[in-house]
Amino acid sequence: MSYLNQFVQQWKAHLKSELADCGLRFITTEDGDEVDVKTNSLAYFRCLRTISNTNDHLDESRDDLAWVMLEKQLKAKAEMAERGTSSLVATLHIEASQIEIRLNFSYDEEQHIVFSS
Organism's domain of life (predicted)? Predict the structure, then answer.
C-alpha cells in the first residue's frame, strides 16, 4: 500500500472518531473510499465551522479549501515518506515494511484548517 493510501486511511480512522464526537457517523457509499473520505471530511468541516464561535464569517467555500489543503498535505507527506523510506532502507539496511509512519491531525479553529504532522 502506498504511503498516500496509508495516510488517507489514517485520516479516515481519525475522521470516524471526530465525526462521532460531533454526533455524526461516517457514511459509506458505493463510490469508494476517495469519494467517501472527501464527503465525510466536508461534513466534519461543516460541523466544526458551525459549532465554532470564531468562524461566523466563514461559509461552505472554506470547508472545500480545508479539504484541498488537507489533501495537499497528505500528498506532500506521502512523497516525503517515499523518499525518506528509501534513504532509511539504504542507510540502515532494513526492510521498508519495518518502517511505520503515523500522522497526527490537529484542527486550527481560527484558520478552519486541519494540519497533519
Answer: Bacteria
Residue type at position 33: D
At 93-105, the pLDDT tens digits run 898 888 999 999 9
CB atoms within 10 A of CB 34: 9
CB contact set of 109 (below 8 Å; sequence gap of 6+):
48, 52, 54, 55
Contact status, residue 90 vs residue 48, Cβ threshold 8 Å: no
Weakly modelled stretches of the chain, pLDDT under 70: 54-56
Rounded Cα gap, residues 77 and 7, in angstroms: 8
What cell numbers appear for 66 in the block? Answer: 480545508
Q: How far is CA 102 from CA 26, 47, 54, 92, 96, in A?
A: 21, 25, 30, 20, 15
